[in-house]
Amino acid sequence: MYTSPLFKEFPKIKKENEGKFTAWVKKNMPGSSTCGAASKIMSAKKGKYDSDVRDMANYAKNFGCSKK
Predict the structure, then answer these.
(1) Helices assigned H by DSSP within the chain
(2) pLDDT tens, 16-68?
(3) For labeling, which of 4, 51, 61, 67 is most exposed (least CB within 10 Å)?
(4) 14 or 9: which carries more pLDDT confidence?
(5) What does the alpha-carbon distance between residue 15 and residue 32 come to, in Å, rounded to a whole number?
(6) What is the pTM of this model?
(7) Residue 55 to residues 5, 21, 32: CA-CA distances in angstroms?
(8) CA-based Rg of the chain, rounded to a whole angstrom?
């Protein structure tokens, strides 16, 4: 398997942060999937959502919602 020299280690989520984004989505965007919410948040204007939420959405979109 090829590994890029730029990608050294898969970014880890700290134990205390696991499930935070999913919980936020269930509370604030009921009926949306986690990946759908991540896409909506990332495409929205920058000031609409808190930077912490945007960071979680970006991580979810990059590492959790990729097509396999």
Answers:
(1) 20-28, 34-43, 51-59
(2) 989 999 999 999 999 999 999 999 999 999 899 999 999 999 999 988 887 65
(3) 67
(4) 14
(5) 24
(6) 0.78
(7) 24, 10, 18
(8) 13
Q: Cite the DSSP H helix spans in 9-50.
A: 20-28, 34-43
* Nearest Cα to Cα of residue 58 among 40, 42, 37: 42
Angle at CA of residue 14, ends 8 and 17, nearest 5°? 135
Length of the chain: 68
- Which position has the token pair 């936020």? 24
Joined together, the tokens standing for residue 45 give 């204007």
